[in-house]
Every structure is written in C-alpha cells, then in structure tokens.
Cell division protein DivIB
Amino acid sequence: MPKKRVTKIDPRKELSPYLNHQENQNRNHKKKSKVSASLSKLKSYRRKSLFKNLGIIVGTSLIAVLILGYYVSPLANVNNVQVVGADDLSSKKVVSSSGIKASDKLIDYRLNSKKLNSNLEQKYPEIQHVSVEISHINRLVLNVKEYPTIAYIKVKDGYRKLLSNGKIGSNALAWSKIDQGKPLFIGYSKKTSLIDDLELFNSLPASFRNQVKLLSGSAIRKSQIILVMKDGNVVIGDISTFKQKIKYYNAIKKKAGKNSLIDLEVGAFSRPLTKSEMKAYGIS
C-alpha cells in the first residue's frame, strides 16, 4: 500500500499574513492615538493661549480705564502744594510764582517740570533746581535746591545772600536768620566792585575764607580789596595779585600779632592798626 504524502506546513508562514495585518493594525492604532493626543494638546494649548491673550487685553483695558477715570476725576487735580528746602522763601509766594493752579493735573507736573523750573529760576536767583513729587494722592511736593551761600551783603532792610552763582538773594533776612559763620560784605555801593570782590573771594582757598569776618567796600581804589579777619587783623591787596600773594599770609600773621594791618598790595608787610582804623573796621 503506497504511503500517504504528508505536506509539511510552516505555522509561522501560514500565520504571517494575519500577524502582519495585526501588527499593521496596532501600528495604525498607535499612530491614530498619537495624532489624537497631539491634536488634543494643540487644542488645549490654543485654548490656554486664547484665554491668556484675552486676560492681557481685558487687564490692559481695565487699567487704561482706571487711569483715564482717575485723570479726569477731581482726585487728579492739585489740591495742596508743599514747598521743601527753601526755608528763607515764602512758600505762598513760591507757589504763586510757579504758576500752579488748583485745576491743574498732578501728573502733568510730575512728568514735565521744565516750565515750573523756568518760572521759579527767573523769579528767585537762589533757586538752582526744583524736583516734583506726588504725595497723599493729590498733594504736589516741590523739592527746592538752592545755590550755596558764600557770604551775606548788608542792605538797608537787613542782609541778603551772596550766592555761588554770583547773584544776590531775593530776600532780606534779619541778623538772627543768617549764618553768622559766613563773612559779610559791607559798604558796597557799586555793583561792579561787589561782583569782582565776590568772584575773587570765591576763588580763594577754603582755609583762608573761613578766617574772614567781613569784606569792606570802602576801598580807596577800584582794584583794592579789604578783608577784616576774625582774629582782628585787616588784610588789603590788589584784586589782580591777591590770590597769588595769599600764600604769605600765615607767615606774616605770626610775626605781626593781633590787630595788625597786613598789606599785600605792593610787596608784603605789616604794621599795627591805628585806633581810627580799628573803629572804622569795627574792631574792638
């Protein structure tokens, strides 16, 4: 009896189409899942971005409305003005000269104070600069910076400041209101002599300036300068050479003693003051 023919079947080969189909299905499913997840993330990102942008627009608009509402409201108007740093000036007059009105907006002066500075600098020679601040919602604060005071000049109604910018202060002060450690300019009837002497005095070393009690305008010649010192000595010199000769002052003073006239005009020498000279210069 003949043998039956046996056909060998490879299970893997037979199942490979099915397995491949399943693998492709799984791969496609994963791709679809990834695409779906990516689309979900994209939609979520777009939604968040939209809400964020809307929040920024709404927030900005709200802030703009609040600022505009404040600007047009009475709260933005100048209600009170405070002047700081100008003790010798009348605050009321400073405010009046500044041109500030109750209907003005605070923020306008805070952002642009050029006109205010110009008004006050023209009116008051002692004012160097004014900075503006806002305090207590609707109070305007004017911080005044003045030029340094070099000395004082005696006038009919008191004493006025002599400033580092070469100008004279606008207010006459009482003796009790001035810095008595600074020298006095007395007897100056000509403005040119005052300006020349003030310019020279301001250029001298601080160590010498601090020893000066007063400068006298009763010089014999226009080019002459007379200084009365705190130690009772009197120094005279020529404006054109005084600055160069001042280096000899301390050495001459030691030899001269108290109540001497130290002459630095021509050469350099000293002699005792006469009684009439002491009286004329207010030395007791």
